[in-house]
Task: inverse folding
């Protein structure tokens, strides 16, 4: 649905993005993740045709964006980093105006706007001037204008920026609901956000793709050897010796010891799950396991590792 082929964009001698290649398949919900200045906004502007690449090709639904800008814009709904709102218009008149520009047939405009007002919880403010709305409402109006033509593809630049926690939850849920029938690409510098709502994450840094995978896949590929955290009721020394005999155990680190309990972090050399073996070893010796869990890397840790490694 969206394809970037070795795309570069330079601003004078400054690099916006360099040699960027990735694809987004129909129906996917993909997150573009990166720190400030990584090139997220540039990438989204290239996809929507607001910028021309200095090198390479951007294809949307098989059409080259720079060759077929109007056709591509018909397929897209775009929420830019600053939504293009007219402060002196009411919510309803603004959405009707955008619907007209987006070539929604005249007879359908009223119904379409009603549906959007309903879906985005804007019905009660439909008669208010946009300039008088709170930031959360304005963001929702921005999202509504992106959806007005019921586009196949949605491009959202930092859709939750500036919202309060409740509004963030609402907008995230809305995006998930919208995603089913559409292809969605959104940008964010918030890690939990993309891991929560996106099926696939493309991490960019300094204009380049440095990783792309599912949130779980990214964590797994970088996790290296699995780690287990274990709390046992028993003497630390003996427990450590027992752990050392479990096949696959590589490193054992005592993290805490108090009141007859000890907490260990155990590194395994194999990709096999060694928790069962640990259980039998402790049960055999009569030391109850109070807690045992895989220490998974969060997306945040993966992201930091990737960016730092670069
Ligand atoms: N119009 C411009 N002129 C010059 N440099 C620009 C322009 N727009 C972006 N840049 C530079 O290109 C790089 C990528 O910027 P971009 O806005 O795409 O990043 P971003 O990931 O969206 O960051 P942010 O989250 O801060 O918006 C940055 O170094 C930025 O300073």
Result:
């Amino acid at each position: 649905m969206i394809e970037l082929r070795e795309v570069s964009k330079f601003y004078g001698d400054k690099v916006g993005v360099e040699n960027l290649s990735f694809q987004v398949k129909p129906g996917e919900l993909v997150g573009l993740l990166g720190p400030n200045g990584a090139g997220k906004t540039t990438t989204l502007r290239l996809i929507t045709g607001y910028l021309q690449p200095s090198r390479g090709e951007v294809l949307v639904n098989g059409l080259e964006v720079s060759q077929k800008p109007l056709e591509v814009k018909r397929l897209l709904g775009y929420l830019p980093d600053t939504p293009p709102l007219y402060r002196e218009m009411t919510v309803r008149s603004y959405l009707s105006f955008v619907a007209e520009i987006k070539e929604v047939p005249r007879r359908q405009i009223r119904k379409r706007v009603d549906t959007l007002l309903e879906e985005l919880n804007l019905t009660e403010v439909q008669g208010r001037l946009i300039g008088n709305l709170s930031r959360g409402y304005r963001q929702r109006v921005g999202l509504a204008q992106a959806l007005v033509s019921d586009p196949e593809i949605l491009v959202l630049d930092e859709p939750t920026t500036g919202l309060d926690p409740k509004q963030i939850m609402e907008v995230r849920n809305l995006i998930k609901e919208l995603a089913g029938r559409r292809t969605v690409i959104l940008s964010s510098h918030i890690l939990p956000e993309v891991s929560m709502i996106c099926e696939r994450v493309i991490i960019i840094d300094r204009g380049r793709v440095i990783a792309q995978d599912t949130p779980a896949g990214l964590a797994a590929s970088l996790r290296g050897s699995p780690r287990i955290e274990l709390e046992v009721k028993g003497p630390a020394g003996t427990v450590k010796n027992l752990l050392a005999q479990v096949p696959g155990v590589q490193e054992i680190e005592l993290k805490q010891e108090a009141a007859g309990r000890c907490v260990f972090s155990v590194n395994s050399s194999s990709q096999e799950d060694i928790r069962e073996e640990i259980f039998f070893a402790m049960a055999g010796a009569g030391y109850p396991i109070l807690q045992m869990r895989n220490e998974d890397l969060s997306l945040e840790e993966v992201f930091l590792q990737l960016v730092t490694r670069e």
Q: What stands out?
A: The mean pLDDT is 89. The longest strand covers residues 14-24. The first helix runs from residue 40 to 48. The chain has two domains: 2-221, 224-296.
